What does this fold into?
Amino acid sequence: MREIRPDLIKAHADTRFRSEYDYALFEYYRSAKVLAFLERAGVDVSGRILDAGCGGGGMPLSLAEHASLVVGIDPIDRFGQAGVTLGRERGLSNLQFAQADGMALPFTSGCFDLVLSHAVIEHVADAPLYLRECRRVMAAGGRMYLSTAPYLSFAGAHLPRLKVPVPLHLIAGRAVAFRTFQILARHAPWTLKEPAHENSFIRDARRGIDKFDDLLEKVRVTRLRAQIAAAHLRVVREELHVTSTVRKLPGPLARWIRDNPLTQDVLISNIEYVLAAA
It folds into this structure.
């Protein structure tokens, strides 16, 4: 598997918003972490793979270096000048892209050995249907990789951060927080922590656009587990990654915060699963 290069991830993170091509490159280097997780979980990535929400195409590009076939789909054609171009530059003939809806996958049942869903389910209008469709196209003995974050955490909220670290979405609720960030981006961007080139609220405000809230599934750990089971999938591996603040706490306390339903949705920054057919 490819080596995780924090220096390259950081370098491309700093330039990822210049274009879809740059963002796809960032996805490509960041995907080494996903490949490492799959390797730890004993998941074979040499077969037929579907990326069911590929964005700019960087993740499928990475997988195509190992798999026999990789298909990346997204409801928006972001990969036209990104993933396709990168695949052509690297001479990859086993990489394909299609504009398609993850809730109505245009593939026959059981045709993929691995289905990948990396930071996608929170943007899906019908998460249970999406999971059932991913389950449907998995081959016998196949696996699914699923990553997301609880919507109450800073990472999962997909909102800017204030320079004064106030969890506005927890205090005022998501609707009020989202509208507040729209106003701040337009009239007081200096109050926001992220620089303008990394902040889609500021970019849209400068274009005179009211940003659309695309967080459609309000992910919670216990709710997601129930949705996985309802889709006739079973958990092969689950990793709940807490925030850096929690990781500094004594082990027993950190594990209690991670596993307690009262705290986990706020302090878990990422969830990773390997799933199989139930």
